[in-house]
Amino acid sequence: MKWLLKFVNYSNGNSMKKLITLLTALTLSSAAMADVQVSDSYARAVPPGQPNSAAFLTLKNTSDEQVALQSASSSAADVVELHTHSHVDGVMQMHKVPRITLNGNETVVLEPGGLHMMLIGLNQSLITGEQIDLTLNFSDGSTQTLNVEIKDVMAAMGKKHHH
Description:
By secondary structure, the chain is α+β, with helices and mostly antiparallel strands. Helix content is 20%, strand content 46%. Mean pLDDT is 84; it is low at 1-8, 24-31 and 159-163.
C-alpha cells in the first residue's frame, strides 16, 4: 500500500486519472482469471529406488472462462509432465500432453488409466502416508501449491468391488 501513497503523493496533476486507470486494469485482470478448485489429490507410493511415480486429482473450473493446466512442478521430482493414456492397436499407451483444458464450469478428473501427472526423476522415496508438494500452473497466470498425500494405489484398486 505504501507504493500507492507514494504514487499519489509524487505524481503530477494526472495522478487521480492514473490511479483510476491502474485500479481498473487490476480489476479487469483479476476478473479474467478462472477459479479452479482442486480436490482429491494424491500421489502413488512406489518402492524405494523407483525413478518415477504419478499424481492424480480433480480439477473443477468454477468460472465461465476456459482455463488450462499448463504445467506442474514438485520438489519431489526433477520433472512433472502432464500425461494421458490411449488405446493404439489394442495396446494401452501413455503419452505426454501439452496442457489439460477445462472449459467453463467443467470438472476434469486426473486418475489412473486416464489423464495424470508423471513425477519423473524422483528425489525422494514416496512412502504411504507422507506428503509431497505439487505446484500447478494455469494458463491465466495463476498457480496453486498443494500438499499431496502419498497413497498405495495398488492396494486401493484391489479393494474395489467389481460386479
